[in-house]
Amino acid sequence: MRLYIEPDRHSDFLSSGEISVEGEEAVWTPPEADAWLQYRVALESRRRGGRYDGYVTDDWALLRADDLVPPIRSDIKDMTQSQAKLQFVLPDGWSVATSYPRYRSGRFKIDDPDRLVDRPTGWLVMGRIGTLREQIGESRVAVSAPVGQGVKRMDILSFFRWTVPTMQEIFPQFPERLLVVSAGDPMWRGALSGPRSLYVHADRPLVSNNATSTFVHELVHVAMRARGGPKADWIVEGLAEYYSLEVLRRSGTISEKRFEKAHAKLAEWGKDVADLEVDRSYGPITARAVGRLRQIDQDIRSMSHGARSLDDVVRALADDDRPVTRQRFEALVAKASQADSK
Fold first, then answer.
1. Which of 199, 221, 237 delimits the end of a domain?
2. Is the pTM of this model over 0.85?
3. Tell me, what's the pLDDT at 196?
4. 98 domain-assigned
5. Burial level of 181, CB count in 10 A (0-12/13-18/19+)?
6. Which residue range forms the structural domain that includes residue 1?
7. Could you tell me if 144 and 125 are in contact, meaning their C-beta atoms sit under 8 angstroms apart?
8. Is there a domain that residue 72 lies in?
9. For a Cys-Cys bond, which of 63, 125, 258, 266 suits 181, CB 3.0-4.6 Å?
10. What pLDDT, on the 0 to 100 scale, is given for residue 81?
11. Cα-flanking dihedrals φ and ψ of residue 260, to 5°?
């Protein structure tokens, strides 16, 4: 079993069988019986600017489960199957919120059909926390945050009751379980999506004054499960921002007039962008991408005589976990519009 580690995060490896650690790889050959592996993990992590996207205090911890167990590649016999469970041993008075179902024993079931050896992914929050849960359509939604952080959990859950049904219409494969975690400073003052989960800083509004929503933007990322290939980040980020507005409009959260004003502001912001194909999309690039995607949606609707739209393209992207490239995107647009991709 090859574990692709971060040397600054994962350390002090011990095991039965044989283990060797070199650089960013730990190679473990377990024995046939009584196989075990242990190591230490540094849970705190900082982003550029000094704020945290993984943080631990005496009262709570908020981090990504991806940091606990590094990616694993296994060389094992054919027909081998694996089963994984996750268990936390916590201080008195602490509880934990994850996006995974829980057994009666208190352990969590980790099941990823795309992996032979399952590993936990997505956001976690634990400690002295408050959690609200609701069944919204076919999804079990939980909003969890440490107490005393000023997180308006009921506001977030109510907003999701209004918007998630529209998300489920656009994305039929919307996750059955969704966890939203939040906290205040010194956590990063932004938002980040993960598998079946998202993090949003406590100070972020549900809907900004320009009628866009960080919450729905990250929710689109969760639903799409897409990552951009080389020079294609504008497609992924543009779709997330485009559909954040579409969800707010279709759900009736914002009016048609407000929707058009939001598009006009984005068009003004991105008007000087000459090239969308950059390594990483950011404000003006994403704003310009939204306008391009809106035109593509109108073209698809026109060429298909209203039978199809950009919805068909994003559903196809969400069904395929390969990186999104311009070539794939153009091919799907051509298929939906039954026209030449140009």
1. 199
2. yes
3. 96
4. yes
5. buried
6. 1-42
7. yes
8. no
9. 125
10. 79
11. -70, -40
